[in-house]
Automatic annotation (TrEMBL), chain A:
Residue stretches of biased makeup (Low complexity): 58-74, 254-265
Residues passing through the membrane, by range: none
Organism: Actinacidiphila acididurans
Biased composition (Basic and acidic residues): 32-49
Top-level taxon: Bacteria
Domain (Putative zinc-finger): residue spans on this chain: 120-149
Protein name: Zf-HC2 domain-containing protein
Region annotation Disordered: where it falls in the sequence: 1-114, 254-279
Domain Mycothiol-dependent maleylpyruvate isomerase metal-binding, first and last residues per copy: 200-364
Gly residues: bias regions: 14-24
């Protein structure tokens, strides 16, 4: 037998861990299992706190991300857990509480494995995907079998090639720059309507976040928060948030004739074209009320893995954007029913972009990831939508006795008392809101109050993420009016 | 997708980006080791595809491998440009180019290998299952799981051999490197 001489090949090591080196000292390479250098090992450096294998945690990427979400994660109770560096757990071979003896020489671990079996184990061995007993038997065998030793080296090196090229540190703003560059070189013949742009961008950002997080975060807890006179919250999981988005995004698809989620995926989607639309009546029609709809959708889909829920959501977002692109401006004014409320389609798209951002930010916060606000142009549309909705909400709250400021009767189209909403920061601007009735004319001359706040703060208030009393807003003028407007803003939020 | 791009559908461009941007950026970054250069190459590659949707020939392989080939070509071009300006050392450049070629071949092999092999590798590598758990997950015998892991890695290991032109899986016809302002209609 003239096989290579293996350094350290016959004992003297403990437990199979801590080996390293690849022959740079002139000694022939010793096959050991996977290369554990940071570059080649599968990304994972935070195994203490979460199930192994999380690409975003690879220090090779220099990821700025924070720690994993689950401080309670206990590898000892996780049947799938495998330590990243040390030897495999030994209980999988059923050898009893002690497992095989740690010194290979004493136990002669290859006893009982024939050449054929050992050879068949080489792939699993190279991937560190066999039991420790088997690994030791293979390594023992490699000291005497040149053919297997050669193959073992080759396969082990091949493992490092499984490392994916996909980058995890893709700047979320690059998308807009790349698309803009492309469209500058060749204008789109079928453009995405401007009012659908924020939705397209926000869905892409959330999708990138989910890709970064990988599959070990689907069950991480997230708070759904909204404001109903007081802050309300409900603890759900990341995957439930995604399913919630799918359920409510699909409301926007209804007037476009898109299928309900959870319907027959094999059925061809009806597409809106040139304003001629057909309403599809699927078998399982979900309720329109946002909460009931979400609950029904959760009940129907809770057996699906997070990755599938993500691709269903993403497919629907792509479908929605594509459908309105083909349908063009003709569909902008279609009515989207939300059960208790309704919005024209162009506003509903901005609303869904807003919700997508807020829920993405909730997820990011829950797992301690950074998440930036939307691009200024998107933010501006979101603030504008909230500002346009406020007069109606204020009137409703007034009728319901939820306001404190006195009101005057003003005929539609006539000037009435106004509030100046001054939004600073990216996407900001100035909005004059009529206070007496939604139909009244707001104007600088009739302004009785002035509120100034940051655009992101305002959005978080409108999403029920900050309480009206806690908002950092510059206030001038009628305090009661300002209080009513801030509470009306918070009440725009829903689950 | 190609037809949709040719039709000038902006939504298709967005979907193309969503699907391949991380591949393009990752490859470009691997070759150039420079974040800004990778951003630039990403812009150039998508700009090229959007302007020349007909340049892709499905007979040459998958869209993914075509995009990878364009990216590779463009990244190597940028790297050599830097080299000729004295900004990087030629040996280092050649090493990076070689590594990038190997990685691109490996990527091609993984994406085109039979699904059962790929699925087994995914479970063992990415999900970190041992082969018994992988066998259970795949609904095959343990011997079959061992066989698939070994065969999958054997296939993958061919990426490390220096490829002669004929055997190179990236046999797409790839355009010459894209000048940032490529002319309209260039083929």
């Amino acid at each position: 037998m003239s096989g290579p001489a293996f350094r350290d090949g016959d004992g003297g090591r403990e437990g199979g861990g801590g080996r390293g080196g690849s022959g740079d000292d002139g000694v022939p390479r010793v096959p050991y299992q996977r290369d554990r250098s940071a570059r080649n090992r599968p990304p994972d450096d935070d195994t203490r706190r979460r199930p192994p294998h999380h690409p975003a945690r690879d220090p090779a990427y220099g990821s700025p991300r924070g720690p994993a979400y689950d401080p309670a994660y206990d590898p000892a109770r996780d049947a799938t857990y495998r330590p990243p560096y040390g030897p495999r757990p030994v209980d999988e071979t059923g050898d009893g509480p002690q497992g095989p003896a740690v010194t290979p020489r004493q136990s002669r671990p290859d006893a009982g494995f024939d050449h054929h079996t050992l050879k068949s184990l080489l792939g699993a061995w190279a991937l560190t995907a066999c039991s420790r007993e088997e690994a030791l038997a293979v390594e023992e065998h490699l000291t005497g079998c040149a053919a297997c030793a050669e193959e073992a080296l080759r396969l082990r090196d091949a493992v490092s090639l499984l490392h994916r090229e996909e980058t995890l540190d893709l700047d979320p703003l690059l998308r807009a720059r790349v698309l803009e560059g492309c469209l500058g070189r060749r204008p789109a013949r079928i453009p995405v309507p401007e009012w659908a742009g924020p939705y397209d961008a926000e869905a892409a950002r959330l999708d990138a976040l989910l890709r970064d997080l990988g599959d070990s975060y689907w069950k991480a807890p997230v708070e759904l928060r909204w404001f109903e006179g007081a802050p309300v919250s409900r603890r759900v999981t990341v995957e439930q948030v995604i399913a919630h988005l799918t359920a409510l995004d699909s409301l926007v698809g209804r007037p476009l004739g898109l299928p309900e989620p959870g319907g027959d995926p094999a059925a061809p989607p009806e597409r809106a074209s040139r304003g001629r639309l057909r309403r599809v009546r699927p078998e399982h029609e979900l309720p329109l009320d946002p909460w009931e709809r979400t609950a029904a959708h959760w009940a129907a889909q809770n057996h699906l893995p997070g990755a599938t829920l993500r691709s269903l959501w993403r497919e629907q977002t792509h479908n929605l954007v594509r459908t309105v692109s083909f349908a063009g401006q003709g569909v902008a004014a279609l009515t989207v029913e939300y059960g208790v409320a309704a919005l024209p389609l162009r506003d509903a798209f901005v609303d869904r972009a807003f919700e997508c951002w807020m829920h993405a930010a909730d997820i990011a916060e829950a797992v301690d990831y950074p998440y930036e606000p939307p691009a200024p142009r998107s933010l501006n549309r979101m603030v504008d939508l909230a500002a346009r909705l406020l007069p109606d909400v204020l009137a409703e709250r007034r009728r319901a006795g939820l306001t404190t400021s006195p009101s005057r009767l003003v005929a539609a189209g006539r000037p009435g008392r106004s509030l100046l909403l001054e939004i600073d920061g990216p996407g900001g601007g100035e909005w004059y809101l009529p206070l007496d009735s939604p139909g009244a004319l707001a104007s600088p001359e009739e302004t009785v109050a002035h509120v100034a706040m940051d655009s992101v703060e305002f959005c978080r208030l409108a999403a029920g993420r900050i309480e009206p009393e806690q908002i950092a807003a510059g206030q001038l003028g009628d305090r009661a009016v300002i209080r009513d407007v801030l509470f009306a803003t918070a009440s725009l939020s829903r689950m | 997708m190609q037809q949709r791009l040719a039709r000038g559908e902006e939504a298709a461009l967005g979907e193309l980006y969503d699907r391949y941007a991380s591949l393009v950026h990752g490859l470009a970054h691997r070759v150039t080791a420079d974040h800004d250069a990778a951003d630039l190459i990403t812009r150039e590659v998508f700009g090229y595809i959007w302007e020349n949707p007909d340049a892709y020939d499905p007979k040459g392989g998958s869209l993914r491998s075509w995009i990878a080939a364009i990216t590779q070509r463009q990244a190597v071009h940028r790297l050599r440009q830097n080299e000729s300006r004295g900004r990087s050392n030629p040996d280092e450049v050649e090493t990076r180019v070689r590594e990038a070629n190997t990685a691109a071949r490996a990527d091609f092999i993984v994406t085109s290998m039979p699904e059962p092999l790929r699925a087994a590798l995914e479970l063992a590598y990415r999900e970190r299952l041992d082969y018994r758990a992988a066998a259970a997950g795949l609904g095959v015998s343990e011997a079959e799981a061992r066989r698939r892991l070994r065969l999958g890695l054997q296939l993958l290991s061919t990426a490390m051999e220096p490829a002669d032109e004929a055997a190179d899986p990236l046999r797409h016809r790839v355009p010459p490197p894209i000048g940032y302002r490529s002319r309209r209609g260039q083929r």
